Amino acid sequence: MSGTRATDGGARDRDQEGRARNARPRDGLGRPLPYGAPGVERQPEGVVRTPDETVAEAQDLLAAGKPFHAHEVFEDAWKSGPDEERALWRGLAQLAVGLTHAARGNRTGGARLLRRGAGAAEEWAARDGEARPYGIDLPGVIAWARALADEVERTDAPVDARARAPHLR
Question: Cα separation of 102 and 111, whole Å?
Fold first, then answer.
């Protein structure tokens, strides 16, 4: 990410267009690290991908234990895709964020977002009548999210994002 670093106590990091952007490096779950620490490269924002590219890239990131980054890919699809698909991509982004929170040990936020994303995807499928958009196994992904939400609520331990990643197709 290109941006400028805050050098005085009150200044915020800004991108080249002057928008506030945190330029601190991030770990694989999107948590900020100290300036100068090695981090995981962030996903570029605002990338327009085909739906198949979105699903493939998000799946690769999920399988690598990077659900925060997968969420950013889904968010790009949600923001750039057709209106009738926004709820689908938003729901998938919420599922990825739910896995992120669960992996960070945020039990309440993780379970809540997993359920919210599952509900959004289920509602979209019911309204659209499509259970496998772009090859995505929505019933399987929805079941995965609800089962993981139940598990997250039963334990205080963070989940392993790589081991618990969903299989989108």
Answer: 7
